Amino acid sequence: MPQDRPSVAYVQAETIPPSPPPPSAAGPLVWLKENLFRGPVNSLLTVVSILFLVWLVPQIVQWAFIDAVWFASSLDECREINAAGACWAVIVERFDQFIYGFYPEALRWRVNLAFVLLLVAIAYALFDTMPWRRQGLIFAATYPVIAYWLIWGGTVWGPLLFLAAPLVGWGAWRLLSGRVPSALALVAGVLVGALWLLYVVGPADRAITRFVGDLRYETTVERLEADLSPGAIEARLEDRYADPDALAEAVDQERSNVERRLERLAGLAGDRAEAESLAAEAEAAREALPDTVSGISDRRALLNLETDLSDGDLAAIEETLDLERRLGAALSRIEGTYEDIGRVGLTPITSRDLGGFLLAVIIGVAGITLSLPIGVLLALGRRSGLIFIQSLSIMFIEFIRGVPLITLLFVANSVLAYFFPPGSNLDLILRVVIMVTMFASAYMAEVIRGGLAALPSGQYEAADSLGLDYWRSMRLIILPQALKISIPNIVSTFIGLFKDTTLVVVIGLLDPIGLISTIRADSAWNGIVWEFYVFVGLFFFIVCFGMSRYAMWLEGKLKTDNR
Amino acid sequence: MTDAAHAAAAESERTVDRSKMQVSDEVAIEIAGMNKWYGEFHVLRDIDLVVNRGERIVVCGPSGSGKSTLIRCINRLEEHQKGRIVVDGVELTHDLKNIDKVRSEVGMVFQHFNLFPHLTVLENCTLAPIWVRKTPKREADDTAMHFLEKVKIPEQAHKYPGQLSGGQQQRVAIARALCMKPRIMLFDEPTSALDPEMIKEVLDTMISLAEEGMTMICVTHEMGFARQVANRVIFMDQGQIVEQNEPEAFFLDPKSDRTKLFLSQILGH
């Protein structure tokens, strides 16, 4: 072998220590060059963009802040003060309406309280480092019922009975498990809970109210009569009104109110007697109906149809209907009276009074919190081996996804009531929440299915091989990972849902967008466009951006590799 | 083989303590006339196999021969369509309760570890004892630490699987299976996804498990391990058990041509 060839043998005796990169590879100038001025096209784009921003941003600042008018009582006044700027005065003046809709001013503390509690509940649901986490999570789970009661008011029994439903279902399940197959016990538990909600909560609420009303009857009458004695109402109200005229007016109003209530209370016995006799008469009239008619429930329709019923029969039907109508009126009068004196709770508010951001937040939060668990169940159902559950899930998902949300909202507005037992009189906003939830759940199910499909099958096998049953392996192994993978898409769905709440304007609910047209109908503000949409847009942006940031934080927190 | 590889092989051949490796008469697994199809494809054909308690069985064979499928049938990750499988006196049928019972008594180690990446090493080990066996958390933690010490990685207990090397992950997977105190362990090519450096640490763990008298069925191509530990080697091809014998006889005097070809291919370089 020739000696001048280099040897192939080589040994590195020492480890080379790490050293910092040279200045040409790091630092702000390098960053600028790499990111903004890399090549002629890139440099040109950078310059054009900067020029565009220099042209645009000052104009926006000028309009929105420097020239803006914050306090004025009409658009004309705004324009007089400074015609070039934004007229934020309309937002300032109508701010409360944007927040609360038409919620009675004296009761808005309930909304505020519900909102503060919402922040607490959200904090517990989203962050696992809060103190008293267990109690906090229980509170977060019951929050929807508490919020519903605070915002809509009504007796306290309704929410309590509602909260008892899971306990009742659980009790039924406990009673049956061990005696019948476990799946059957589970179904029975769910069924009992559902029946409790549909058929027990309402009547029991009314029965308790009636009971309390009877207890309170005497004292209420006494108190109202005491109010009517000269000077009593004045003494009660004089602290609140400085102006004597206003006081007199308030006293008059209160006096007529007291008189009306007394009158109703006095009429209670009569109303009951009337209801009793009407009930008997209606029963008798029904029995006297000809056989051909007695089995038909919708007798009113018979009157409008061309039938071969004799005039006598028709008259009998009409009389029965009339009796039933009067009976219904008497019963609702009695109920109203009892609700007046027997209600332990808050003054009820109707859904028509809700609006603005309050409405958007109610629908958004309810939809978001419900659509995630329902979406999970639908996704699991779609992947399930049980053909019945699988096809049911697929049909639901495909149908709901294939229909525009507006259509579903119209359905909520008109058709949905037919699917619930008569008399349950589902609130419009509740119906909207159901529809929005169903819509979001269908999307959510597909998002989560994607996450489930992305998990390697080894995870399922490892969970199986350890003897975990289906629900445990889903809850402990599969879902935590699948949901983590799906976070970006889940949040996208949430954001979409929250922005879609503005669609309720098509069925006449006054969400922020709906309020804009209401306020513009006021001649003082007619002609304003930009300010409204900028304001409403900003609100939605802040909420949605917050969700997005939370998702990013959560993703970082759940990252478990190479930390 | 290079000299270095020979040296490494020699080093890994540690003396195996055989004092507790005793095969009893008690039957641990009984497979009789078992057949399995994937759709039209007949993957397992007339498998008959009786495994006594304390046996260490190595299953080998070319890829696609059905060896993984066979051991996955034993804890019913795969369903068989004909014949019967009885594990610890419990027959595997459609009864989910029986399946979960068998699975909690049979530990399994996978080629790709299949650790749960969202849980720490310790949580990986305590999850099944807590939720399946209803062990109190403190006790489960103690057991898990005991087994993590045994596989020599107690210091990694609070890390996540993604932060460990392949060999460490596989040892965690073994500890996780052991935490359920299984009576039978199944290994499905536990070293095939590992770098050569890491194979040894996993094999050492498996050897010490064998030394304690664990009933084991290992699908593996580690013939050194088979020679040292196994009391029986099974060769499978095309869904059938072609040949089985004691390791010495199996390696030195294979009977069937198919076995001879296979052995010449895996030992031939």
What would your notes on this structure say?
The complex is a heterodimer of chains A (563) and B (269). Chain A has 563 residues and is mainly α. Helices cover 73% and strands 1% of the residues of chain A. Chain A contains 22 helices and 2 strands. A two-stranded antiparallel sheet of chain A has the order 1-2. Chain A is globular and about 130 Å long. Chain A starts with 27 loop residues before the first helix and ends in a 5-residue tail after the last helix. The mean pLDDT of chain A is 86. In chain B, helix 4 packs across helix 5 (137-150), helix 4 (121-131) packs parallel to helix 6 and helix 5 (137-150) packs across helix 6. In chain B, a hairpin with a 2-residue loop joins strand 1 and strand 2 (41-52). In chain B, the strands form 2 sheets. Chain B has a 6-stranded mixed beta sheet, with helices on both faces. In chain B, strands 2-1-4-5 form a 4-stranded antiparallel beta sheet, covered by helices on one side. Chains A and B meet through helix 19 and helix 20 of A and helix 3, strand 6 and helix 4 of B.
